[in-house]
Amino acid sequence: MIQTLSEAVENAAFSLHSMIGYIYSVGENDFYNINIKDLFKISLEDIGNPDSLSKIGISTKTDIANFTQLSDLMFYAFAVRTPYLRRISEIKVSDRLIVSLYESCAEKGAVDPDNFVRESFKANMKAAKISETKRSEPPFNGEWFRRWVYSYGGELAEITNRNMFLLGCMDALFPLYYAKLTDTLTGILR
After folding, report:
1. Is-contact 165 31, C-beta < 8 A?
2. CA distance linking residue 97 with residue 174, whole number of Å
3. Distance of CA 26 to the CA centre of its chain
4. Residues of the chain with pLDDT under 50
5. What are phi and psi for residue 186, nearest 5 degrees?
6. From the CB of residue 106, how many other CB atoms can be counted at a distance below 10 Å?
7. Please, are residues 80 and 124 in contact by the beta-carbon 8 Å criterion?
8. Termini Cα distance of the chain
């Protein structure tokens, strides 16, 4: 089960990574001609398939500086939030399962060597144990993505319509992907 769960987390990260490439490409070529809701819909239908958008006939831009390292960072951002699975009321999730899942993700490459993601597994583990009434789960957002863009994103850090379009899409897409990932993991755990 741990293997299946960690693959779901990894695939969601790679799917989100792929989506960034497509959104960047749309912003470069067809900013006003393609309905971004269609890309969101296709991508969110199956976050476990990083190639789901390849069917729409848009080539993705992958020559962005440092773009490949971003997928591991996304994987990490999802992996450190796995302790919040214990808050799913209809499922009893043990600490041992959560730790094993996180360790499996780390072994597969979920890393943040430059500390862009301000959350940590340990802090989330403590926070998730606190009762729901005392402290709710913090929202999943893309602030760490912005820090990465302005530090390593090269051309993504330039102030252009395309880059602002990308950052705006990420603000909406990150929480949607996280919610879909939570649903996927819940389905596996049932």
Report:
1. yes
2. 25
3. 20
4. none
5. -60, -45
6. 16
7. yes
8. 11
Q: What is the model's pLDDT at position 131?
A: 57
In 42-188, DSSP assigns E strands to none
Spans of all domains in the chain: 2-189
Cα–Cα distance between 16 and 49 in angstroms, integer? 10
Contact 14, 54 (CB under 8 A): no
- Is 56 within 8 Å of 42 (Cβ atoms)? yes
Q: Which residues contact 106 (CB under 8 A, 6 or more apart)?
A: 79
Token pair of 96, please? Answer: 């041992």
Contact call for residues 20 and 167 (beta carbons, < 8 A): no
Count of C-beta atoms within a 10 Å radius of residue 129: 12
pTM summary value:
0.89
Q: Which amino acid is at 59?
A: S
Q: Which two tokens stand for residue 82?
A: 């796995």
- Nearest CA-CA partner of 26 in 68, 58, 74: 58
Q: Residue 174's pLDDT is what?
A: 93
Q: Report residue 123 as tokens.
A: 């802090």
